[in-house]
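Before the break, one more example. Copy the sequence into your notebook; we will annotate it together after we see the structure.
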Amino acid sequence: MPDQPNALASRTLGEFLDQLAAKTPTPGGGAVASAVGALAAALGGMVLAYSVGKKSLAEHEARLTDAAARLERARAVMLELAAEDEAAYGLVNELSRLPEGDGRRAGLPEATLTAARVPLSCVAACVSVLALLDELPGITNRHLRSDLAIAAILGAAAARSAAWNVEVNLPGIADAGVRGAIAVECEGLLARAAELAGRVEGACRG
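Here is what the structure looks like once it is written out:
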């Protein structure tokens, strides 16, 4: 498990890839989903960096500055979720390996619920990033439209990736009502993510 809230941010890319490729339960797909979401937010931030201060976009300056700050916050949230996902799955993995008679296994249902809710938060965060990116075509530097489109593609991919970690943990949630509510929420968020990403790509082509 990570030893600090933003452990992913403190690693080099090479270190993260080495740890990811290793035969260890964490980091895994959840951390990757959050990292890709952070990349989407960062790439959107680059588009804004090349748009803020441009005379031709002066009328949008306030919106652009606000969007840049929001994407920076989103990037930080994604890194926090990566750490939370590592911790959540690490605990599930630890508890599930205990003998059936071990009293500590009593914490497995709650740990599994957390392991589903953390990636669900990642899906929701990706949708927020995509909704922000959807505001940018037409008011940002046209020369970076491919970067904006790629940011949207990454945001949608991160949402779909995180949704897999929601889905894989659902069977371990005993309460059918909670399980169903999480599944429905996740499905709705994924549909919204796909819609927004498609809209951004379309606008960037136009």
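Confidence is low (pLDDT under 50) at residues 1-5. The chain has one domain: 12-205. Try to locate both features in your own notes.
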